[in-house]
Write a structure and sequence with these properties.
The protein is α/β, with parallel strands linked by helices and 361 residues long. Helix content is 45%, strand content 12%. The protein is built from 15 helices and 12 strands. The chain has a 6-stranded parallel beta sheet with strand order 9-8-7-10-11-12, with helices on both faces. Helix 2 links the parallel strand 1 and strand 2. The chain is globular and about 65 Å long. The relative contact order is 0.12. The model has no long low-confidence stretch (mean pLDDT 94).
Length: 361
């Protein structure tokens, strides 16, 4: 979302730069291709990575920002620290997940969340990308004075219905042109609950044996032993394609018959739902974070950790006749266009930044 936001920001109005704590990777290339410079602290795992913070003063002073925007918990800390080297420039936080149960987070994340709650009143503003994320964080102790919600936005010129994408994806997978594809786009993480998706897939195959299931994201490959164990235990390996991390997400989204978000917890505003809906692809999601608010009546919502309900909701879309499917496709894309246009979301960020900077003058 940060990369998309920067691509839609008026460069003449706001000059931006990104400071990546770790090596920036593929998304760093995406951001620089939009004309935004990317710096890195090149931090590595472990306490030795803290030594990399010595690079921070020089980078911040060279760019001399008028405002510092943190992005997620650790980025928020670095934004606050950076204010020491930016003449006390205002600092804005960004929180992009919900917080149903802190015990589900990893140890370092729990520490970061607790410290964030303690320090949260120091931020000039805290942007949440979901209503549920704001409510849950404030209930946990985050400041209620400076929070606001700006949802994710989507580039409708990039994510759009495409018969060519459907054909391209099926050709890549060696499938017939009318093969039905159900996909999930998520990195390997317990909160994403790929096991739930795979169990639902095994149930779907009992009545829809021709359906193919496709996964993309970091860790979605044969080198992931935990994922492979799940697939093999369900005996569905022949119907599952693992495509790893990819850059052609619009092709994937537009090529699916149904997009699934199977998360067990932690979602704020799932980007994948907006992207798929912009492509006119029906979505089924677990009722986590703001998923139900995002889909409204334009998608299927099921309880988390319930593969039977997930399977039924997916099959309802697989069984649509062509006319009904086209109606659903037009309605879902229209919903995103009306409420989550990327240009409008970028405008809201820019307006907030300018308001904060003016208040300091």
């Amino acid at each position: 979302m940060l990369a998309k936001l920067l691509s839609a920001t008026d460069g003449e109005r706001i000059s931006s730069a990104v400071l990546s704590m770790s090596p920036p990777g593929r998304l760093g290339d995406v951001i620089t291709s939009s004309g935004v410079p990317v710096f890195t602290l090149d931090m590595r795992p472990g306490l030795r990575g803290l030594v990399a913070l010595k690079r921070l003063p020089r980078i911040v002073r060279d760019f001399a920002p008028d405002l510092l925007q943190g992005w997620m918990y650790y980025g928020n800390f670095v934004a606050m620290l950076s204010r020491l080297y930016a003449g006390g420039a205002p600092g804005v936080w960004n929180i992009r997940q919900s917080l149903e149960d802190i015990s589900r987070e990893k140890r370092y994340a729990r520490w970061a969340i607790r410290l964030s709650a303690f320090l949260s009143s120091w931020a000039d503003a805290i942007i949440y990308n979901s209503i549920s994320g704001r409510v849950q964080h404030e209930a946990y102790g985050f400041s209620t004075r400076n929070g606001l919600v700006i949802p994710n936005g989507f580039d409708l010129s990039r994510f759009k219905p495409s018969p060519e994408a459907r054909s391209t994806l099926r050709t890549e997978l060696g499938l017939e042109s009318d093969a039905q594809l159900v996909g999930m786009v998520a990195r390997w993480h317990p909160m994403k609950d790929h096991a739930n998706f795979m169990r639902a897939a095994s149930l779907i195959l009992k009545t829809h044996p021709g359906v193919r299931f496709v996964l993309i994201g970091r860790g979605m490959d044969e080198h992931n032993p935990e994922l492979m164990e799940i697939i093999e235990s369900l005996n569905i390996g022949g119907q599952v394609s693992l495509l790893g991390e990819r850059a052609d997400t619009p092709v994937f989204m537009a090529g699916l018959d149904v997009l699934v978000s199977a998360s067990a917890w932690g979602e704020g505003f799932p980007n994948v739902l907006g992207e798929a809906m912009a492509c006119g692809t029906p979505c089924v999601a677990t009722n986590v974070g703001d998923s139900a608010r995002v889909l409204e009546e334009y998608g299927g919502i099921v309880p988390p950790n319930d593969p039977e309900s997930l399977a039924r909701a997916v099959m309802a879309y697989l069984d649509l006749d062509p006319a009904s499917r086209l109606e659903v496709s037009n309605a879902t894309r229209g919903h995103v266009k009306e409420k989550y246009s990327l240009s409008e979301i970028a405008q809201r960020y820019a307006d907030l930044y300018e308001k904060i900077v003016r208040s300091r003058q």
